[in-house]
């Protein structure tokens, strides 16, 4: 008997943990009144939940093909949202550096640190998971 691939179960747990962590961070740590920022921030846990729901179809064999597609859409949505967050941060860093002189350059370096943290904290999990879903092993598990 072939050994079952544990990666979908690990990804499911990590996705749900990410949803809880991002909801907590949005609600408690990043209060904002700007509606576009709120919508943009909430797109991340929504994308992670799509990723988790697609991954959870590992438990229902009839839904696995659809679940893989849902997980790919959710992961791609998180990655696209992350790219847009990076563009927003780079634009604000450029504005700060160009407008406020030396103080703005210091604040812009903080924005660059935020970009590095966003890549590590938000983009890494969906990037690895989408790569797995597109691989031969991922297709084999979800067929």
Folded structure, characterized:
The chain is mostly helical and 143 residues long. The protein has one domain. It has 5 helices and no strands. The chain has helices at residues 7-29, 35-56, 64-99, 101-134, 136-141. The two termini are 18 Å apart.
Provide tags for this entry.
143 residues; mainly alpha; 0% strand; elongated
Identify low-pLDDT runs: none
Radius of gyration from the alpha-carbon trace, in angstroms: 18 Å
Element order, helices and strands?
A: HHHHH
> What structural class do the secondary elements suggest?
mainly alpha
**Mean pLDDT across all amino acids:** 92
End-to-end Cα distance, whole Å, is 18 Å
What is the count of DSSP helices, taking H or I runs of 4+ residues?
5
**What can be said about the biggest beta sheet?**
none
Beta-strand proportion: under 5%
User: Helicity, in percent?
Assistant: over 70%
Number of strands: 0
- Shape assignment: elongated
- Quaternary organisation of the protein chains: single chain
What is the total domain count?
1
Task: List strands and helices in order, with pairings.
Blueprint: H1 7-29, H2 35-56, H3 64-99, H4 101-134, H5 136-141
Helix pairs in contact: 1-2, 2-3, 3-4
What is this entry, summarized?
With 143 residues, the chain is an all-alpha fold. It is 85% helix and 0% strand. The model has no long low-confidence stretch (mean pLDDT 92).
